[in-house]
Amino acid sequence: MSEKNGVSRKDYKKTSKKNNSQEPKKWVKRVLLAFITLFLLVMVAGGALFTYYASSAPELTEEDLVGTFSTELVDKDGDIFYTLGGENREYAEANEYPDVMINAMTAIEDQRFNDHFGIDPLGIGRAAFGYVTNRGQIVGGGSTITQQLVKLSVFSREKADQTLERKAQEAWLAIQLEREKSKEQIITLYLNKIHMAGNVYGVATAAEEYYDKPVSELEIHEAALFAGMAKAPNRYSPYANPELAKERRDTVISVMLEEGHITDEEAEAAYDTPIDEGLVEQTTSDNNALVIDAYLIRVLEEVSEKTELNPYTAGLTIHTNIDLDAQQRVFDILNSDDYVDYIKDDVEAALSLVEADTGKIAALGGGRNTKDRLGLNRATHIKQTGSTIKPLSTYGPAIEHLKYSTYHQVVDEEYSYPDGTPLRNYDGKYRGQISMREALVDSRNIPTAKIFNDSLNMDQAEDFMTNLGIPIDPMSKEGELVPSNAINGEMSSLQLAASYAAFANGGNYTEPYAVSKVITQDGQEIDLTPESNKAMSDYTAYMVTDMLKDVADNYSNYVGLGNIPQAGKTGTTNFTSDQLSDFGFPSSAVPDSWYTGYTSNYSLSVWAGFDRKETGYLSFTDGSRLIPRHIYQELMQYVSEGKENSDWQKPASVKEVTVEAGTTPAKLPGPNTPGSKLTTELFVEGNTPTEKSLVYGKKLSAPTGLNVKYDENKDELVIKWDDYTLENKDKKVSYNLSVDGASYTVNDTKYKVSEPQEGDLLIELSVSAYNTTGPKSSVTVKVVKKNDEDEEDEEKEDENSEDKDSEDKKEEESKDSDDNKDNDKNKNDKPTEDENTEKDPPSDSDSETNKDDESPDGDKENQNNEDNKENSGDSNGSSEENNS
Fold it and tell me: Belongs to which family (predicted)?
């Protein structure tokens, strides 16, 4: 038997097998030991962190637990129009709350309420795990009713404040509260404090408001509804969302059944009770709350962002900028069919109305058919803008930084983005050389993209937009603008309204604000009015406005305000080709339509579309794409009544100059430039044209050397003159010859007329060049023809004479005959370009903007043209869309 290292093979195998069988046991022990050690370290560290956080917890007073101070909202005129917090709150004693209400609340919110000491360790563990795995944000529940009472009493309910530190402090205060209060006292305090949607606080108040009964008389289905609303009161309101409310109520009923609080029969009866059974009709104050809902959301956001105060409990006086008349009209327009035909029931709309000079938010519309309290505020939601961004990203910066005139010429031609992606216009056509005004008014994508990508640099565009409060990040790539931002971006209606307001007021930007100041309960005044900044020069604001006035004029059938001066811009976004196919929409379908316009008093931005793209589309075919324009007209007309609506005054920095159309760069007209070739545009002072055009109006002199001889033998006039040379030797002139009233156009310096009339003949000659004709030179020649006898004698003499030069004579006659044939051929004909004439510049019809892409009567042909007007962009169908 062989041996290995002095050990037999058999013994070696036994020893190896034994050692191998022990390895897994050692590994398990090590892992278990490491896990226990890690757990103990985490527990120690967690305990230390908990102790640290708890040490900084705020004091919890009886006043915090029981009382809150109502906050009053004041309108622009100083009148109170809404109260937050304690206004609509009734307190009930512990014995007033029936068991069914307490059982419903504990069943859905805290099933171990009667057993824990203020916190639920399992819930705390879930919250800590969520904090670690979600980058410092608490995403899991687990709070006990005691913790929720603490949070409602001393902490903010904002999601951003739900940190691990805040959770630790809640837990510590909850433990302390459980030591000081009985379970009955805690549940009573909680039921008296919780929010029950709208401006209703406490279950006792809700019982009166919703069912017009004392809390002691609540039935199972009513108690279950209130318990379910605690999680999200506005979402589960039976008035706002009855279907969601019933689903949540039934969930509570099922949990009550599982916990043994009710019987199967009681549960079935509660399930079968309609959600609206017993509900009282909403009061006027409730309806008023819906009217101001979008504005109230903005107010709460601003107070929360700019102060550390809780509007619901701090007893504040909040001075807002709301115009209640305008806000009511916004609500009426969006929530009825009395003003605008919305075509489709599920189409959504939102708007923002801002005072042009101050930036004050006068009114907000968060959506159509408003039912939710503190619901979705679409007025402040970011959406793709389409062409409403063009004045902000391209034309404004071009005037501000490059001092472009409204005449500045750009060529509308085939074009691709820097990465090679082709871009097209709404009509798929190219207009050639056009002015910047025409490019903006007719919403030409290609000229806009050329200016943005080829003339501006991104820093100039970004600087201009940043000064207007426009965030670059939502529409940028790695913090920078992208080529498609020439024609599309991402903004909210509030941001658009505030940005356009800077054009309306001469160049100043003020961050739009709903709250001007807050006065605390102890009289401290906090000014929340933002500072204004000079966002652009006055020449930029005026010149952009002057161009956008043409847009408003073009769409006067839809946005017209009578004699009120206004300016504006449309915008539309696109579906991708894949989306059109997947959703089964027609090619003319678009997801979003905009109109942003302004007067000297207000700036108003309106959006219409759908919350989810797949649910619907807008189109000119059914008129739904015109919805924003109709809303704009209705509201702007209303708020403009009774106000001085002045026109914009041209600042000294802007010069109005008449130039010759088509010249590049712009040139002043010559003395003979025809009226049809004149156009008046705006130029920045110091950048006005000084040179006169040579295309028209070049002064010409009369030709020289005019000489006429009559050849009796040939009976012809021989007319000669000096060659006329222009300063530009590449240009040629044509000669205008008149012989006794007969006109000839000649390109040579001689001409022969056969068999002229007898008598004194007037010969006149002038030159034409640069599309103009110079003065005439003239001579008179006497033509006397031979009689018959003279001709016979001459013929005889000719026959007897020697024919010494007959060959030369024949050649000369042949040459003269050819000359006359050429001249007769050109008789009364105008020269072609090949005959050295100057080619006319483009005609008016070539350069004139198509002012009405939609006919005044909305005729079908023009509407079909506009179906595509705002629908051009990348070939991949991205939302770098065309817009009108």
Answer: In the N-terminal section; belongs to the glycosyltransferase 51 family. In the C-terminal section; belongs to the transpeptidase family.
